[in-house]
Each structure stands twice: as C-alpha cells, then as structure tokens.
Amino acid sequence: MSTSPAVNISHVLPDVGSLLGGTEVAVLGSNFPQRSRCFFGSEAARITWLGESSLMCVSPLGRKPGPVRIIISADTERSDIRHDAAGSTFTYQDDLYKELWVVAFFS
C-alpha cells in the first residue's frame, strides 16, 4: 500500500482578515490533494483547488479576534498537518466597528 506525500503549507496570503469572514486566502505549498478540505482553526472554509501547489480558501466567520491555524486535510479526514513553515496561521481582526462606520457613513 502506498502513502501520499505529506502536505506542506509554505505561505498564506493574506494572513489577516475580518472577523466577519469572507476573505479570499491563497494557500500555497505542495502535495495538496484534489479533494482537499481547508479549516481555519476548527471552522471549515469554502475551498477551490487550483493545483497541487495552490488552494483558494474563503475565511469563515471568526469566533474571536486573533490567530488560528490553517489546516489542510484530504477528503473528510480531519487531521492536523505537521509543518515547520512560517505563515501557516491566519489572524482575525475585530473590525466590526469599522464595518459599522462604513455602513453608517456611506448609507
């Protein structure tokens, strides 16, 4: 029985986004299976597989401001990826006040 090569995450761009979710995040690395799943911490994200070295994930609604790990798994398996690369986290920013101000000002 052969095993798949280990998934590696090298970059997460951008690595900061709104607590409200909806940020398109490029996840770059290697050995991403076509049936990958993407998680921001424990929350599943919408994902588009662009190839073995790139995925596009849309950040889900954040639970609280701060960093969460980006986790890529194959199929429905929910196991952490072990990697040493910098940039494997995404930081949610609490910009609700800013969003409300923009809505109030431009409405």
Short description:
The chain has one helix at about 95-105; strands spanning about 10-15, 15-20, 25-30, 35-40, 45-50, 55-60, 65-75, 90-95.
Written description of the protein model:
It is a single chain. The chain has 107 residues and is mainly β. The protein has a single domain, classed as Immunoglobulin-like (Sandwich). Helices cover 10% and strands 46% of the residues. It is built from 1 helix and 8 strands. It has an 8-stranded mixed β-sheet, with no helix packed on it. The termini are far apart. Residues 80-86 have low confidence and may be disordered.
- Along the chain, the helix and strand elements come as EEEEEEEEH
Query: Which overall shape is indicated by the principal axes computed on the Cα atoms?
Result: elongated
Q: Work out the helicity level.
A: 10-25%
CATH architecture: Sandwich
* Total domain modules: 1
The count of helical stretches stands at 1
Query: What's the CATH C level?
Result: Mainly Beta
- Ranges where pLDDT stays below 50 over 5 or more residues in a row are 80-86
Rounded average pLDDT: 83
Strand order of the largest sheet: 1-3-6-5-4-7-8-2
Radius of gyration: 15 Å
Q: State which percent range the strand residues make up.
A: over 45%
CATH superfamily placement: Immunoglobulins
State the total count of DSSP E strands.
8
The structure class reads mainly beta
Topology:
Layout: E1 8-13, E2 16-18, E3 24-30, E4 36-40, E5 43-51, E6 54-58, E7 66-74, E8 89-93, H1 96-106
Parallel strand pairs: 2-8
Antiparallel strand pairs: 1-3, 3-6, 4-5, 4-7, 5-6, 7-8
